[in-house]
Amino acid sequence: MNLIQRVQDILLKPKATWPVIDGEVETTASLYQRYVMILAAIPAVASFIGLSVVGFGGYGMALRVPILSGLAHMVVGYVLGLVMVFVLALVVDALAPTFGGRKDPISALKVVAYSMTAAWVGGIFALLPSIGVLGLLASLYSIYLLFTGLPVLMKAPEAKAAAYTAVVILCAVVLMLVLAALSGLALPTRSMFGTTTAGGPAVTIKTPDGEVKIDTAKMDALAKKMEEAGKRMEEAQKSGDAAATGKAMGALTGGNGQPIAPADLKAALPEALGDLKRESIESQGGQAIGIASSMAKASYAAADKRVQLSITDLGGTAGLAALAGWANMTMDKETAEQVEKVYKQGERTVREEYRKDGSHGEVTVLLTNGVIVEAKGQQVDLAALKKALDAVGLDKLEAIKRPAKA
User: Fold this and answer.
1) N or C: which end of the chain has fewer CB within 10 A?
2) Please, are residues 357 and 296 in contact by the beta-carbon 8 Å criterion?
3) Do residues 391 and 378 lie in contact, with contact meaning Cβ atoms separated by under 8 Å?
4) What is the mean pLDDT of residues 157-177?
């Protein structure tokens, strides 16, 4: 399959292209490797560049999402987008008999994957946030593609195609809301990603502030995991076992390991930071469709000085950690008022951002096991924030082994 030609055909002549797609022999892995994982990267990378490099705003001002914060959201959004395609395909397959169609998991994945083409290609408009609305308009064409594809691939009567499409779109909206909430759980703070350089063939995206490297070998590995998860999901669907479905989705995102217990993260937060006393402390953990995370945070104060420490574990979702492993960057940026740096400290990635007047500062460390530790402060200097991180015990956190699911 020629990727560019297929994109052109499905966009310009969908009615003639769907029968061709229906006759092709595919697997979950081949669809993801040759099509989904490539096109789904377009809106993710374009949004990252548009928001973190180009910036948005008006009247002579440009606001930018911090580079590593934008990178974190790009990675998590990309993975959840891949998950959405898979889950929506399950919905399409499950609904087929209701609208007079046939159940066929691969055909359902085909119709979802190729219908999303318009939305993915339209994602290129995110490079310029000011015209990002054009991407939304392009996404509407994906509804038409779905409408024309369901009768061909799922063998649903054309008379029921409109109703079938409407129900699938409704389910997609609900799924998007669920994944948006899950993304908020995965990134409860302005998390900052960056890891060691990945080996093997890589695609490098260059920005004014650094480089982002995508390891294609890890993409292949993730595709294999998706194929395994697809088999598990089919078995779970046949048995009606909700727990098995959750485990299969966990496998889709990279494994069934648990994040570090919230109580253990909470225990790492000290009672005081020098003369700053702890005012509050909390921890939480959550899981949805097999994806789990945990976090703990505490606030400290003395007079006008304030520090907040937070620890977030996304590493229980090994697929996310693997995707983060594609990225590696450094940065050194300074203005008259502010300094921002990203650098390697051994195998760890560190981000510093602070105002020169000492009014605000942040230091974030990504540990080698995927745990993110962040210190934010007001009216405290950078050295004090680094001491706060030392008080957490980074080596000890890095050494904690995650429990496996039962």
Assistant:
1) C
2) no
3) no
4) 84
pLDDT, tens digit, 9 for 90 and up, residues 310-335: 988 765 444 344 344 334 456 677 88
**Highest averaged pLDDT of the listed ranges 47-56, 272-281, 313-322:** 272-281
Model confidence pTM above 0.85: no
C-beta neighbour count of 124 within 10 angstroms:
16
Helix axes 105-115, 14-22, angle to 10 degrees: 150
Virtual torsion, Cα 280, 286, 292, 298, nearest 10 deg? 0
Question: Which pLDDT score is estimated for 155?
Answer: 93
CA distances from 37 to 2, 199, 298, 381 (A): 15, 19, 38, 43
> How crowded is residue 220: how many other Cβ atoms within 10 Å of its Cβ?
15
Predicted confidence at residue 83, as pLDDT, reads 85
Closest CA to 120 of 45, 13, 53: 45
1 pLDDT band, cuts 50/70/90, is: low
What is the spatial distance between Cα 406 and Cα 149, in angstroms, rounded to a whole number?
40
Structure tokens at 258: 């648990």
- Does position 363 have pLDDT exceeding 70, yes or no? yes
